[in-house]
């Protein structure tokens, strides 16, 4: 026998408030967005789109800073540091592509829950 828990309307509102705050949070995207992405279908997509645009702006600023520092220091950096800066720039570009793809789905309304929650629950 399974116990099925339900969330109260007040709990649902609080959950969404915290979810939206997490989409807007600063920091490493793996830490700030990976969890909330699992609940994207429960969010207010207008708020998420706004937060994603801000995240994109932050990533663009990070990438610009990395490029600036690399140009300033490239002749003086040891090999390991050059490779690390290259990796950081590539990670920023990857994150930008990912954020733009998520934003495109959000703006197009292509966000959905699992099509068969009962089937998904039966697999656990």
Q: From the helix content, strand content and strand pairing, which structural class follows?
A: mainly alpha
Mean pLDDT: 94
| General shape | elongated
Count of discrete structural domains = 1
Give an overview in words.
The protein has 124 residues and is mainly α. The protein has one domain (9-115). 72% of the residues lie in helices and 0% in strands. The protein has helices at 9-24, 29-32, 34-37, 45-73, 79-108, 117-122. The protein is elongated. The protein starts with 8 loop residues before the first helix and ends with a helix. The mean pLDDT is 94.
Keywords:
6 helices; mainly alpha; 124 residues; elongated
Q: SSE layout and pairings?
A:
Blueprint: H1 9-24, H2 29-32, H3 34-37, H4 45-73, H5 79-108, H6 117-122
Helix pairs in contact: 4-5
Short characterization:
With 124 residues, this protein is mostly helical.
């Amino acid at each position: 026998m399974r116990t099925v828990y339900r969330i109260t309307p007040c709990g649902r509102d609080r959950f969404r408030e915290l979810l939206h705050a997490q989409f807007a949070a600063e920091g490493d995207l793996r830490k700030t967005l990976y969890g909330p992405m699992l609940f994207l279908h429960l969010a207010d997509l207008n708020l998420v789109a706004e937060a994603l645009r801000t995240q994109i702006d932050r990533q663009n600023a990070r990438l610009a800073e990395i490029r600036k520092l690399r140009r300033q220091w490239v002749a003086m950096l040891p090999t390991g540091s050059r490779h690390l800066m290259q990796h950081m720039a590539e990670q920023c570009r990857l994150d930008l592509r990912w954020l733009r793809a998520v934003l495109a789905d959000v703006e197009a309304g292509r966000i959905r829950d699992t099509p068969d929650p009962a089937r998904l629950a039966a697999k656990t």
